[in-house]
Structure formats: structure tokens, C-alpha cells
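User: Cysteine rich repeat domain protein, Anaeromyxobacter oryzae:
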Amino acid sequence: MRTMARVLFAAAVLAAGSARAGDDACRADVEKLCSGIKPGGGRIAACLAANKAKLSPECKADLASIERKVKEVGDACRDDIESYCAGVKTGQGAVLRCLAQNKGSLAPKCQEIVQGAQEKYAEFTKACGKDMKKLCKGIPRGEGRVLACLKSRESELSAACKALMGP
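Assistant: Predicted structure for Cysteine rich repeat domain protein:
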């Protein structure tokens, strides 16, 4: 079930178009409340959930928005993921690729979400692909490592990638 939750969260973030998934709104809260937590596998999200009462209003609002999107993606794609992608190992977009390969058989709302996620990914790749290759070569994909690399080299990003990454 944790695997399904991670898949739904990743799909929701892609469908929402948020490259940073609450990064700005929750950054101070993560540093204050979860500084010793190793990123990856949903550990930071779990830490924030455990400290929900202590979160800033901005972080609470951002997480609530992501939770709504996760529920929407879950409602739309849970059955399709279980039917077509149950044996797919999660990570690096494998489940999204599986859903895309079965797009014609998916429920209409799930098809729409998969299409939206593919469009956001294509937009990101077009805007930031050269920067990823130049500035983050050798960084393993997954768990937000490439995004963190790009964010850490923000002053060196192309104008298109900077615009997509936001302020």
C-alpha cells in the first residue's frame, strides 16, 4: 500500500505541474522539523505529516493542495494501476510509463491525468533538459535529486528553466 501511495503522490505532483511539490512553502518547516531526515521514500512527507500541528499556514495550505490532487489521481487511476501496472517496480516514472503504454485501455479520467503528466514532463524536459545534462550530469534520477541539483545551481540555469522552476 505504501508503494501505491508513493505512485499516487508522484502522479499527483506531475499532474499538478509542481516541479518542487511544496518546496518553497515548506522549506523552513522541513529545515526546522525534519533536518535529520534523509530524503527519499516519502520520509520528509511523513515527517511533515507527523508535525502537522507545528507547520506554517503556507506549508499546511500547500500540503492540503497536494493531498487533494493525490486523492483525485487515486480516485481516477488506482484501479488502472492495479490492473495494468501491479508488477511494475516504482521509481523514475516507471508506473507513469506503464499507464501511458496502456492509455487506450484506461478510465477516461485517468487517461486525462496521464496526458497532463506527460505534457508537464515534456515541458520540463524542453525547458531544463540541457541544464540537467550540463549541470547535473551523473546525478541519479529519482526521489527529486535532479530537481534539487537544478535548484542548487539556480544562478546557472537557462532563462527557460529558471522561468519554469519559478521564483
